[in-house]
Backbone:
């Protein structure tokens, strides 16, 4: 009964030593060691043994004290701050100069701009290509996957996380295009962005933080990702949510990508103040923008915004501007209705035909009271239009 | 003749206790030495100097209690080291675990061993309770002054303490897994009538899981619960001593009584001899030493060493192979789908789901029925077990005795149901708590890019 015990002690003890030895072996051979060896060889080849002796060994990290953040990327990406490795292979290549002028690596680290997992010291983990890490490395393959011309489109997106209130970011072409489109198309008419805007659509201020799970991906045939959903939805809102009142702006795929990247960049990220010198930290609209938005929301024509008519129609004389201009300018409705339908405006609005019959029975349902209000306002708009016309003609 | 300093040192050294004095005799040459080995050594004095062969057989105890204790030891040792490395603050907790994973020497191994050993301990303690029930080891046998029901109660409290230890440890990494498991767990506690919200407030130290909760769980996890469990462990072991060893001792004694035994082993004194026909039996040694007992040193010690080594081996190997999970940082705005309690509470979560029944406008409150009522009744039943048992001393210390067939069957069904519910909750519940067979793939949550 006890004869086996001695053997078992030896066996279990031996296996325990094996497991411990394996743990020690793992500890002695971290993944970055290979890269550090190769880097030393590279430096020796190019600059001689003296400088090779200066190459670091062990875990390297950039600790951003105020942000409570650490980036260990430089354990393998050893050449980022070295001069003369501009043409070396990754991970030893020198970082391009321009972005570092205002963002020195030792102060900003890597992951604020590039994404990935700063804590990690193993390749797939560090690049965020593992389960349970939701910030992938924003490298050029991602741009390839989404067929964006700009190689660094996704890093540019991350510029906008900190620089979201700036009108233009130096060197971030695709993001600047997105910002411009968002201003020009008047997204604020329906959406709140940074605390200002209409409430017809959802608040977009923190759009990039929304849970990917709340969207329906059945329409997406390529990659079922939040970004793909945003791009597809921007290009064809109705096919993604049939009941939406958001119009199809006819965005080209590049434009949709640009806007989607800006939307994805609107995230809450804790950035300590000391890292943001000179960065605009508030959304400051120009007086013209403010006046235009005010006219849209509170001016005489606010009825047309509230009832979403403005999605397709300008009412130019009341300051209502449509982003899509799908339908005709309603400032001229009084004379347009008889010309197009052979009926007065009053009779047409009460009993519409054609496209407007569909729109007014399904998407925009008005009571008779509201229709009378619409007619009154349209007549006012026409009068104003005429006044503006004659004023313009009388100008010398 | 003057004594040289060297000789003085030599003489002094000779007076120091020898290695044999401070350790035990590993190869005793006599019965006396074997007994002394246990009695003289502080670490060993809580063992009996002799033990029945039956108690040494792994087919009786499966060594489950010992394994639990060894796991507790592993957890204490790794846990103390982890305390030097972990920072219990909302800002630093997650980062310090990531540091353990990637930057600290042996940090990953240390943390994985601690986690695996914790999971194993919950499982092994539960199995130990099953073993004690099925062998009727919670019952008093034939020896004097036994109080095994008390030890059963102590054991039940130890089981609860083990669960609480694991539960409080679950929050510490401050990742999504931790945050939402504790959310689910404490929301079940909320379903207790009248005081539910109070219990949750007390557990969380507020209305939401935050720094208050973290420090509360940390102090419970590192100080109060381990010390409490340690004290209970000492009491548990002491009671085993007082109850005359494992319950199979009683069994051996009974068997021996039934069989014709040499008379020398039992001494019978006649008290006064006046009262006709009545004698007081003082049975000093119930068990025939020659036939049933062996020396604890070195046989029990060696077997104990086997159990310790194997438990360490299994924990360390699993830690290497499986590792410990660490999800994205805790984010109160994003609920993972599905959000699950720790696995040993998934039978509860599963019960909550099953007992939430809607018929028309009427809803059965599953959180109360499945989360409070049923587990509460199970706990009461567990505590009442020693008093519900009507079988005699022949059912003590033996597997599946015929006289306890009904009790054992009911108990086994309940335990298997709990295990089955746990398995379903762990492996077969996907997004929106939908049922999936293990070979079916869950619909993946889409990534951002």
Residues:
């Amino acid at each position: 009964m006890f004869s086996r015990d001695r053997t078992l002690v030896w066996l279990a003890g031996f296996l325990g030593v094996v497991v411990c030895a394996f743990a020690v072996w793992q500890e002695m051979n971290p993944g970055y060691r290979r890269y550090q060896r190769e880097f030393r060889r590279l430096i020796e080849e190019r600059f001689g043994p003296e400088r090779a002796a200066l190459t670091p060994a062990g875990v390297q990290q950039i600790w951003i004290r105020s942000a409570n953040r650490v980036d260990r990327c430089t354990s393998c990406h050893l050449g980022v701050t070295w001069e003369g490795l501009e043409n070396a292979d990754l991970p030893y290549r020198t970082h391009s100069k321009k972005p570092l002028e205002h963002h020195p690596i030792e102060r900003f680290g890597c992951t604020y701009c590039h994404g990935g997992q700063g804590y990690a010291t193993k390749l797939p983990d560090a690049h965020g290509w593992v389960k349970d890490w939701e910030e992938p490395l924003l490298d050029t393959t991602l741009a390839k996957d989404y067929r964006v011309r700009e190689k660094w489109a996704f890093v540019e997106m991350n510029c906008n996380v900190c620089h979201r209130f700036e009108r233009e970011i130096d060197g971030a072409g695709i993001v600047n295009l997105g910002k411009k489109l968002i201003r020009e198309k008047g997204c604020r008419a329906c959406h709140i962005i940074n605390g200002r805007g209409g409430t017809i659509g959802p608040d977009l201020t923190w759009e990039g933080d929304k849970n990917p799970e709340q969207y329906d991906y059945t329409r997406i045939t390529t990659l079922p990702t939040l970004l793909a959903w945003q791009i597809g939805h921007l290009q064809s809102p109705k096919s993604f949510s049939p009941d939406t009142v958001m119009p199809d702006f006819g965005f080209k795929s590049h434009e949709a990508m640009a806007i989607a990247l800006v939307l994805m960049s609107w995230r809450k990220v804790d950035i300590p103040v000391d890292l943001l010198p000179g960065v605009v930290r508030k959304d400051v609209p120009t007086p013209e923008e403010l006046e235009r938005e005010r006219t849209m929301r509170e001016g005489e024509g606010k009825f047309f915004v509230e009832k979403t008519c403005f999605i397709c129609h300008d009412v130019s004389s009341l300051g209502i501007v449509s982003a899509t201009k799908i339908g005709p300018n309603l400032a001229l409705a009084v004379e347009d209705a008889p010309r197009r339908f052979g009926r007065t405006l009053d009779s047409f609005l009460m009993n519409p035909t054609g496209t407007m019959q569909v729109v007014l029975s399904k998407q925009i349902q008005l009571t008779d009271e509201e229709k009378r209000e619409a007619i009154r306002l349209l007549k006012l708009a026409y009068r104003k239009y005429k006044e503006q016309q004659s004023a313009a003609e009388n100008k010398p | 003749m003057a004594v040289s300093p060297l000789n003085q040192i030599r003489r002094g050294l000779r007076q120091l206790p020898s290695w044999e004095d401070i350790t035990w005799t590993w190869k005793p040459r006599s019965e006396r030495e074997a007994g002394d080995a246990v009695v003289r050594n502080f670490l060993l004095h809580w063992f009996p100097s002799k033990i029945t062969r039956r108690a040494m057989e792994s087919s009786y105890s499966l060594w489950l209690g010992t394994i639990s204790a060894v796991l507790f030891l592993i957890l204490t040792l790794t846990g103390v080291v982890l305390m030097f490395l972990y920072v219990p603050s909302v800002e630093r907790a997650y980062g310090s675990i990531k540091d353990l994973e990637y930057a600290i020497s042996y940090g990953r191994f240390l943390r994985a061993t601690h986690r695996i050993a914790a999971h194993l301990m919950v499982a092994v303690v539960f199995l130990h309770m099953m073993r004690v029930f099925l062998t009727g080891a919670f019952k008093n046998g034939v020896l004097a002054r036994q109080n095994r029901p008390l030890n059963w109660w102590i054991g039940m409290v130890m089981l609860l303490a083990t669960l609480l230890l694991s539960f409080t440890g679950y929050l510490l990494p401050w990742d999504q897994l931790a945050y939402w498991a504790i959310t689910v767990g404490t929301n079940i506690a909320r379903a207790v009538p009248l005081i539910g919200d109070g219990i949750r407030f007390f557990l969380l130290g507020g209305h939401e899981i935050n720094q208050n909760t973290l420090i509360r769980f940390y102090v419970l996890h590192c100080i109060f619960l381990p010390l409490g469990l340690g004290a209970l462990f000492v009491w548990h072991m002491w009671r085993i001593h007082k109850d005359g060893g494992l319950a199979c001792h009683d069994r051996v004694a009974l068997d021996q009584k039934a069989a014709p035994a040499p008379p020398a082993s039992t001494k019978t004194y006649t008290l006064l001899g006046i009262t006709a026909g009545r004698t007081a039996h003082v049975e000093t040694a119930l068990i025939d030493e020659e036939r049933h007992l062996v020396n604890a040193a070195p046989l029990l010690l060696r077997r104990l060493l086997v159990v310790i080594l194997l438990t360490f081996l299994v924990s360390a190997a699993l830690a290497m192979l499986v590792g410990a999970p660490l999800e994205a940082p805790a984010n109160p705005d994003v609920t993972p789908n599905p959000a699950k309690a720790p696995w040993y509470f998934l039978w509860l979560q599963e019960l909550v789901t099953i007992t939430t029944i809607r018929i028309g406008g009427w809803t059965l409150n599953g959180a109360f029925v499945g989360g409070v009522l049923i587990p509460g009744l199970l706990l009461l039943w567990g505590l009442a077990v020693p008093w519900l048992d009507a079988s005699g001393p022949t059912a003590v210390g033996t597997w599946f005795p015929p006289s306890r067939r009904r009790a054992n069957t009911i108990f086994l069904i309940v335990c298997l149901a709990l295990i089955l519910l746990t398995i379903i909750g762990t492996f077969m519940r996907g997004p929106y708590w939908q049922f999936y067979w293990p070979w079916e793939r869950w619909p993946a949550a889409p990534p951002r890019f």
Summary: The longest strand of chain B covers residues 50-52. Chain B touches chain A at residues 53, 56-57, 91-92, 95, 98-99, 101-103, 105-106, 109, 175-176, 294, 299, 302-303, 305-306, 309-310, 312-313, 316-317, 320, 325-328, 333-335, 337, 445-449 (CB under 8 Å). Residues 273-285 of chain B have pLDDT under 50 and may be disordered.
